[in-house]
Write a structure and sequence with these properties.
By secondary structure, this protein is α+β, with helices and mostly antiparallel strands. The protein folds into four domains: about 80 residues, 2-Layer Sandwich (Alpha-Beta Plaits); about 230 residues, Chitinase A, domain 3; about 90 residues, Gyrase A, domain 2, CATH 3.30.1360; about 170 residues, Multidrug efflux transporter AcrB transmembrane fold, CATH 1.20.1640.10. Helix content is about 50%, strand content about 20%. The chain contains 21 helices and 19 strands.
């Protein structure tokens, strides 16, 4: 008898602890679901008792497009040029690219799904919280082309054909004839020089000032040479031709000019420097090379070093000669400090100095004060060879493009700690990249996105394993940006926007409020019905229902379920199913009581008899949810997810929570 009593006490103890555990879990879930109210209560406790209770993290619910407001875009992929067997892979590639672009916008709860309507494939994009429709469309729907190019060594089409030569000759004959006519008028009446300049000069900078150029320096070589031999107020008797065209000149006063210094330089380009078309070096590599050249440079070998190393094509054939420069001109080219040092110091070789155009080693040759002359001119421009030729293309295309790039990521060199960008190619891309690197060792390879270069790394060796590393003086942010742009890549196929819909935030808020009101009213009515119909068991069911709601909402937050109107409908439906399980249990319980069983055995048998019906009904509902998830649209999927979670938790609520509470109270009535 004593052993039987002890066994009962053990079972009672387990029940009590089970109820305590459920209550603690309920309290934790409630705190997690409503952190704002929870933290206020925690603050009050901490103010009264200095125990520093931790606050509950305030993680909001994820709201879908119809509740938060936002943009829904539908694109159709053009797969007409692809064989049937490749279409599934292509549409998956489109989805992957679109998902990366959506991530780049910074939308947390975005949804990208593909669907098929007959033979047409569509991509449905939902962007909750996004207001700028045009920016979203630009980011997602554009079809950027990622290409790898190599330096063009072709000289084709850089010479004029016979037709172009005749055109050049004809145009310049017209210009010369026009200039002669103006010169004749000037000779006939020199006083109308400035008026003719305003009417006929093609120099837009000076024509409104009557052709006045100000005081010119020797940098304007041919004009300065004429001014040196001319007298004040003299007008040129013949046309003075320079690189701009035909000039008719008038000289004014002369003056002692500024102190000038004659400089030559060697320029070393690096990736990112202004005006560097095909840089071979990173900034750190360019700096090292400039330092090495500086150690070798002298007045005797400077011209040779220019020919061998300089990247300044304009001065390379002139020994790097920049001419005579004023302090201001030196400052503009190389910076204030360098200008000051250059005019004060004696060393002939200076540098290396870094500018936005590269690294420079400078040869300081001579310093003098030159005469400057006041000048007016009338200019008639001539046509040049470059005016008729198409612009030179420094890069040529290769067969390697974004379709062969599997991915790019930011990595760190374990030896140097330098940030790098790693590239991975597929098999075809690996083969093409090996060919490209094999023929471009020591030269750059250009990576272009939408026709714009995003990186021009130099090839150091043949790369045959399908993996490459772009090195450079990257910051982490720059490397991440480059990797993102590479990963954005090119869409496997073009996509067209066929539908767009905006949901205002106010409309979404209104839908949310109405949905919450409907849910609250439904839950209250269900609880009132249960208590009115089943009395005490109904009250237990209402308590279990509150716990079920708290557990369900906490799980939505924890796993990041995106709530939509359909999802809320699924949740409310699951509330009804949770109550339905309790109704089955209570009805079986009442049947056992009518059959004459004692209270406790009746409760136990009621649960056992109800379980099979609960199980079968819920399993069939879960199968339906699974099918909706597999084949439904995004709208239906939200309903299926919340309903499936609700069904699983409703079984836990009915079998565990309700059962524990009934086991707790049945002994109280058994003693009657």
């Amino acid at each position: 008898m004593s052993q039987q009593r002890d066994s009962k006490e053990v079972r009672r103890s387990k029940t009590r602890w089970g109820v305590v555990g459920i209550l603690v879990l309920f309290l934790a879930a409630t705190l997690y679901v409503a952190p704002a109210y929870s933290n206020k209560a925690i603050d009050r406790v901490n103010n009264v008792i200095p125990i520093n209770l931790p606050k509950v993290p305030e993680k909001p619910f994820k709201l879908g497009l119809d509740l938060q407001g936002g943009i829904h875009l539908t694109y159709e992929a053009d797969l007409s040029n692809l064989p049937q067997e490749d279409r599934k892979k292509a549409i998956q590639g489109v989805r992957d690219v679109v998902e990366r672009r959506v991530s780049g916008i910074g939308v947390n709860n975005a949804s990208v799904r593909t669907s098929r309507v007959g033979d047409r494939f569509r991509i449905n994009v939902e962007l909750p919280g996004v207001k700028d429709k045009s920016k979203a469309k630009e980011k997602i729907g554009k079809t950027p082309i990622l290409r790898f190019k190599e330096v063009s060594t072709s000289t084709q089409n850089r010479e004029l054909n016979e037709e172009q030569k005749q055109q050049l000759k004809k145009e310049n004959q017209k210009a010369k004839q026009k200039a002669k006519e103006i010169l004749t008028k000037v000779k006939n009446d020199k006083d109308q020089f400035e008026q003719l300049a305003r009417e006929r000069s093609e120099d837009e900078k000076t024509k409104e000032k009557g052709g006045y150029m100000g005081y010119i320096t020797p940098s304007s070589t041919k004009l300065h040479q004429w001014a040196q031999s001319a007298q004040q107020a003299e007008v040129s008797n013949e046309l003075i031709e320079n690189e701009e065209g035909y000039n008719i000149l008038k000289r004014g006063e002369s003056r002692a000019g500024q102190e000038k210094i004659k400089l030559s330089h060697i320029r070393i380009c690096f990736v990112g420097a202004t005006g560097c078309e095909n840089p071979l070096y990173t900034e750190s590599e360019a700096k090292t090379k400039a330092e090495n050249i500086f150690e070798q440079a002298s007045a005797y070998n400077f011209s040779n070093l220019v020919q061998e190393h300089s990247d300044d094509e304009e001065t390379k054939d002139k020994g790097g000669n920049l001419g005579y420069l004023t302090r201001g001109e030196v400052s503009t080219k190389f910076g204030d400090k360098f200008a000051t040092d250059t005019f004060k110091s004696n060393p002939k070789i200076l540098g290396p100095v870094k500018t936005d155009r590269g690294f420079h080693i400078v040869y300081r040759q001579d310093k003098k004060t030159v005469q400057e002359y006041e000048l007016w001119r009338i200019l008639v421009e001539t046509t040049t060879k470059e005016d008729l030729l198409p612009p030179k293309e420094p890069w040529k295309k290769t067969k390697l493009s974004g379709s062969q790039l599997q991915g790019a990521e930011v990595v760190t060199d374990q030896r140097t700690g330098q940030v790098q960008v790693s590239l991975q190619f597929n098999d075809e891309g690996a083969r093409l990249f090996e060919e490209i690197t094999g023929r471009n060792i020591g030269r750059p390879v250009g990576i272009f996105l939408d026709g714009e270069p995003i990186s021009t790394p130099r090839v150091n060796q043949v790369i045959s394993n399908g993996e490459a590393v772009i090195t450079g003086n990257f910051s982490v942010e720059e490397a991440q940006n480059l990797a993102e742009r590479l990963n954005a890549g090119a869409l496997p196929v073009p996509i067209d926007l066929i539908s767009q819909q905006s949901v205002g935030a106010s409309l979404g808020q209104e839908s949310l409020v109405k949905s919450l009101k409907a849910g609250v009213v439904a839950i209250i009515l269900v609880m009132v019905f249960m208590v009115a119909f089943y009395r005490l068991p109904g009250l237990i069911s209402a308590v279990a229902l509150l716990m079920y709601i708290s557990f369900t909402l906490a799980l939505y937050k924890l796993i990041g379920v995106t709530l939509t109107l359909a999802g809320i409908a699924g949740f409310i439906l699951s509330v009804g199913m949770a109550v339905d399980a309790n109704v089955l249990i209570f009805e079986r319980f009442k049947e056992e009581l009518r059959a004459g069983r004692p209270l406790k055995p009746a409760a136990k048998e009621g649960f056992l008899r109800a379980w099979t019906s609960i199980r079968d009904g819920n399993v069939s509902t879960l199968i339906t949810c699974f099918m909706l998830l597999m084949f439904g649209t995004s709208f239906v999927e939200g309903f299926a997810i919340t309903l499936a979670i609700g069904v699983l938790l409703s079984m836990f609520s009915a079998i565990s929570v309700t059962r524990l509470f009934l086991h707790l109270i049945t002994p109280w009535f058994s003693r009657q």
